[in-house]
Amino acid sequence: MGGAAENVRARHSVTIVTERAGKYPFSLVVVMSASSKRASGSTGGTAVRHGRQKRSVWWVNGLKVLAAGVTVVAVSGASVVSYATWVVADSLKPSVNLVTGDGKPPVVNGVGAMKGAINIFLAGTDGRTGEFEAENAGGGARNDVNMLLSVSADHKTATVTSFPRDLMIPIPSCPSEDGTPNYYPEMNEQPLNVALDYGGLACAVLTIQELTGIEIGYAGMIDFQGVIGMTNAVGGVPVCVSQDINDPYTGLSLTKGMHTLQGMDALMFLRSRHGIGDGGDMSRISSQQAFLSSLVREMKAADTLTNPTRLFALAKSTTESLTLSTSLNSIPALLSVAATVKDIDVNKINFVQYPVKTHPYNPNKVAPDYPAAESLIAAIKSGTAFNVTGGTGPATEVEGADSTATTPTTAPTTDGAVPDPAATTPAVPGTIDLPQNVKGQSADEVTCTAGR
Asked: Which residues form the Cell envelope-related transcriptional attenuator domain (predicted)?
């Protein structure tokens, strides 16, 4: 049959919509009033289009609906929720199969919090490579942003580890798009950001999995439009600039002070490296972590992950620009991720940089600092709380703080002033100090990006 739905059966006020086999790995239960069913006049895609009209009528005639009684209100509200779910589901792209230890992707049951520790890899890519940086011109889409979100088994702490694109590491053999194992042969030392172009998202995940020893069951890839849509959906992200930023490559120009960035401005900020810190990729990572920490604070303050309206707006703004692993490519899975992380305190969310050192044969590249990395990865795997002692990174700073001292935890300011580094949180018993070469910050720490 035509349209997005193959089977629609009405039982008075309940309509059950079953997705066409293979398009989505789940079914949607859509509840609507009997009158709205009669008005649709057909099944399949038409019913979905009617859902859009029904939502509008419900709001315009809100007083009439209230007068009709509690039952009608509940039924109409369910129609709106179902329509929103359908819209987000219809935006999901074809998924990518990951290679896991047992060869089977994780199974998400229901929409509650996931069980145990979870690890989600996120790659940021520009399908229009070369738009901002001349050195990328002529290449394919590359994973220039590489982050691993690790949530502890008790769901009380989360760590986002960023890996520099110029990190020189082996690329393992990777499967083809249809899952054929070892389709792409392994390569000796290569920059991390070639993995995506070489073997797709699954290959980028395998590369990080081999490097860290952390099994990654979930993954996503987001392009520039997704970043723009996400920042627009949350109404902008406040950032602190401690020194003017002028990047001729991205066109970013920011004066010293506080700025609220969204859309293309936010994208340019996240892409900039020539205008910040020492101009290197580690500077860009520290600047991105300052931005993401602010984004987390904004989402927490607005209860984005517990507010259905805000969560829908955020999901709708990003799903069209997201490619997800099969394990994550469903509404239940996405809701489960939100339920898993929604109660983590901002001071228990850490953004860290995978520790590196200058490459021995190429000063323009970096190599893993394995001893420091071992301490970081061990803490992540065990869920042990840690202190970042190496500072925030080459492009960010807390005004007045000693860059060699333990990174302080500060509360966000409400008046736009630069945070006071003296407002620190005492060390928590049972935490460990990471090596000095591990840099980063907690999400509740307000840091400022420095130009150059």
From this structure: 142-300
